[in-house]
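Progress note, sequence design subtask.
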């Protein structure tokens, strides 16, 4: 009893690369299932470190983990436009279609920057946004320290 689950004919599409999506994708990878992880960004953002990244230069790099390094060809960067449940297709912006036998939706939550990073951007662009934010905050902080007003 308690035999193996067959992976034959199974292709799982996971939409969303946040904590839930990568947990599902990691489990599918470990169990040998065919899967595709789809996210609009090219890197997972570990938002628990986001506030530190907003004040410590160089730390933002540590809060982004490129999906391709973990999931290789099982990762597709794109924005989902439509899920066609009749044809079992996920249709991405630009028309690319990804077929599935099983679908996991992990679209996550939204929130303001710097706590969340919900903008379509490359890993490099996302890290740069935090570095720019730090410079802006520091310039305003410096202004407040040495003047009686801030603007």
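Output:
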């Amino acid at each position: 009893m308690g035999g193996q689950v067959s992976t034959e004919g199974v292709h799982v599409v996971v939409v969303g690369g946040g904590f839930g999506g990568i947990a599902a994708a990691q489990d599918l990878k470990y169990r040998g299932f065919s899967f595709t992880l789809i996210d609009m960004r090219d890197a997972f953002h570990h938002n628990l470190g986001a506030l530190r990244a907003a004040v410590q230069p160089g730390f933002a790099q540590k809060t982004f983990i490129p999906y391709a390094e973990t999931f290789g060809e099982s990762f597709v960067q794109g924005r989902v436009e439509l899920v066609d449940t009749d044809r079992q297709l996920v249709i991405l912006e630009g028309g690319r279609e990804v077929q599935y036998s099983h679908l996991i939706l992990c679209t996550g939550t939204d929130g303001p920057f710097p706590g969340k990073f919900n903008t379509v951007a490359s890993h490099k662009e996302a890290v740069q946004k935090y570095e720019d934010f730090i410079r802006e905050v520091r310039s305003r902080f410096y202004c407040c320290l040495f003047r009686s007003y801030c603007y």
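The chain has a mean pLDDT of 85. Work on this subtask will continue into the next period as scheduled.
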